[in-house]
Amino acid sequence: MYKETNIRSIAKGITWRIVATGTTMSIVYIFFGNIELAVATGILETIAKVGLYWAHEKVWQKIRWGRKKIEPFNLMFTGLPLSGKTTIADLVYDKLQKLDIPIERIDSKDIRELIPNIGYSKEERLKHIKRIAHLIQTLQKNSISTITSFVFPYKESRKIVREMVKNNIVVYVKASIEECKKRDYKGVYEKALKGEIENFTGISDVYEEPQHAEIIIDTEKIKPEEAADIIYKYIKKNYIK
Ligand SMILES: Nc1ncnc2c1ncn2[C@@H]1O[C@H](COP(=O)(O)OS(=O)(=O)O)[C@@H](OP(=O)(O)O)[C@H]1O
Ligand SMILES: Nc1ncnc2c1ncn2[C@@H]1O[C@H](COP(=O)(O)OP(=O)(O)O)[C@@H](O)[C@H]1O
């Protein structure tokens, strides 16, 4: 998010004054053919309008009417490993950033690097998700929206987030296990099938499908760019009118 600095406001004020006063002086000169009158009008106009503009701005700063607060939201991407969460969430993030709203991207790989000593048992995953929900909550207190992509495999883990954060939008990124195995650029399915990874979602642990997702993306039918567009339009319609 950008803040208008004082120096930028002053520069804008000066350039606008040159344009506006130049226009007034030209009109006076065209009508009356008197250069002294045109210059005098220009000087008087500058003095009067600089003061009046300042007062006008001060009054409007106190008026709340017509201002709209953008409520922070959390886009919660959930789905099997390799279903396409990161790919689509990154595209949505790029699109939403262009709207100049305060927004953060939180992906499982970054958080698991940051908090490495946590495993994948149900108990550990729930503990992990509570920390993430707390992080989203803190960002929301500062009006920052979030795009989070985690497996979020249990109904219980998604409920934790829904109860802790405002405006939670579940995006279920759907793909069959067979398809995810084909996409396995991380080699995690291969390892899980060999028994080298325990409690692997979809292989040796459950993925409880969301029953009330706000958005469902079937990645075997919809391309990443189309999916990002659907999600972007949903956000624009419901949160940034
Ligand atoms: N046992 C097990 N189960 C599921 N996933 C595993 C496991 N071990 C490692 N991985 C890799 O870690 C990613 C999932 O981590 P998450 O933090 O999103 O999981 S969770 O939400 O806490 O359940 C997930 O990455 P994504 O592919 O980004 O989903 C896996 O590649
Ligand atoms: N329709 C699709 N949507 C998203 N990803 C897709 C799609 N079709 C193929 N893929 C590929 O599947 C892989 C998904 O990986 P990734 O986004 O890291 O998934 P996840 O974050 O769910 O583990 C990527 O290589 C991506 O290019």
UniProtKB/TrEMBL annotation:
Gene3D superfamilies: P-loop containing nucleotide triphosphate hydrolases. Residues 73-218 form the APS kinase domain. InterPro entries: APS, APS_kinase_dom, DUF2061_membrane, P-loop_NTPase, Sulf_AdTrans/APS_kinase. One of its GO terms (molecular function) is adenylylsulfate kinase activity. Pathway: Sulfur metabolism; hydrogen sulfide biosynthesis; sulfite from sulfate: step 2/3. It is an enzyme of class 2 (transferase). It catalyses: adenosine 5'-phosphosulfate + ATP = 3'-phosphoadenylyl sulfate + ADP + H(+). CDD domains: APSK. Residues 10-61 form the DUF2061 domain. This is Adenylyl-sulfate kinase. Its EC number is 2.7.1.25. Keywords: ATP-binding, Kinase, Membrane, Nucleotide-binding, Transferase, Transmembrane, Transmembrane helix. It comes from Caminibacter mediatlanticus TB-2. Belongs to the APS kinase family. Catalyzes the synthesis of activated sulfate.
